[in-house]
Amino acid sequence: MPHLFREIFETAVVFLYPANCRVCETSLEVTSLPYICANCWQDIQCLEPPWCDICGTPNIKGCCDECAVSPPPYGKLRSIALYQTTIQQAIHLFKFEKKRVLAQHLIQLINARIPIDCAIGEYDFILPVPIHKRRLRERGFNQSTLLAKGIAQAAGVPMLMDVLVRHRHTVAQSSLDIEARQHNIIDAFKIRKPDVIRDKHILIIDDVITTGATLREVVNELWKADPAEIDVLTLARTLPD
Predict the structure, then answer these.
(1) 80: closest CA among 219, 211, 205?
(2) Which phi and psi angles does 196 have, rounded to 5°?
(3) How many whole angstroms from its chain centre is CA 47?
(4) What percent of the chain has pLDDT over 90?
């Protein structure tokens, strides 16, 4: 079943036969967004300044202690919302239960809440964090690619799909503890066509940042091509312990 037809079919089923909200379990109205009620969508905890100038950790003015002592490889990282309740369930439905119909609503959320210090139109290229071809076959799509495409189209910035690949299959990061995540992701990515991004301003898009291990590996690999700048934007983030 083609992806577009599948999304239309899934949307029709949800609207014709509304069930319960996957967050609060109240009955969905026919006019509700798919799977999650309007009230829960409104309860998403979107991030507001102040945040760390570099890593974007909330409630920090200037630079946080960790970034001051050991700066990350990217210029700055920004996130739209905290990875809690509604956004956590929405990402789970989208990513693991393959509810692609939610992509458009998550993209709308991102584009409506782009941080004030993250001017998308100033970047030369947008790059989604790639997944391995084996996982792509299993899932049928890369969630970061769908989000990046929606952001790129809204901002009029080209999206690159073939500059960075995930050439080594790894265990899902979500199933590992912090230390294991660091080792699991080592040498998982490979840069191709480095000349395309040399001296360019790059924005990396991912769905969630937890420990940051994946994004650090991605950014470190991209620096081999000598871009001018690498920043990161994620849909959600967890709070540091």
Answers:
(1) 205
(2) -65, -35
(3) 15
(4) 75
Query: How far is the C-alpha of 142 from the C-alpha of 19, rounded, in Å?
Result: 27
| Residue 175: per-residue pLDDT | 55
Rounded distance between C-alpha atoms, residue 120 and residue 105, angstroms: 19
How open is the CA angle 90-132-152, to the nearest 5 degrees? 55
Q: What is the 3-state secondary structure (H, E, C) of 97-128?
A: CCCHHHHHHHHHHHHHCCCCCCCHHHCCEEEE
Residue 54 tokens, joined: 């570099």
Question: What is the residue type of 189?
Answer: F
DSSP one-letter code for 156: T
Q: Cα separation of 24 and 171, whole Å?
A: 31
Amino acid at 71: P
Instruction: Pick the closest to residue 146 from 164, 155, 156, 159 (CA basis).
Output: 159
Judge whether residue 172 has pLDDT over 80.
no
Higher pLDDT pick, 177 / 84:
84
For 127, the token pair is: 């790059």
Predicted TM-score of the model (pTM): 0.88
How far is the C-alpha of 103 from the C-alpha of 97, rounded, in Å?
12
Q: What is the pLDDT of residue 50?
A: 96
